[in-house]
Amino acid sequence: TDNFEEKTKGKKVMVDFYATWCPPCKVMAGVLEDFDKVKPDDVIIYKVDIDQHMELAKSNGVKVLPTLVYFDDGINVGSDIGIKSIEELKQSAKEYFEQG
Asked: Which of 65, 71, 97, 100 is most deeply packed, by most CB within 10 A?
């Protein structure tokens, strides 16, 4: 996360903001593992533990866990809060990354 801007620049990135003590985050982690197998090849998933990177979570408006934040070329283009299904993730990725 030290080079967060570098990791998101020029890419389509989904960032899973989670905490180790958060049961719904554990459920979402499993869904993301499955989604990783079917997601578009140009979409990258990163995980950020908010207890270790609170400033990054705050700067991206994360108030509830789990929260997925979508970055297109380094720009925050949207977020999903709570547990999502693979189909919902596919739909969100399509919506957030379809521009341009």
From this structure: 71
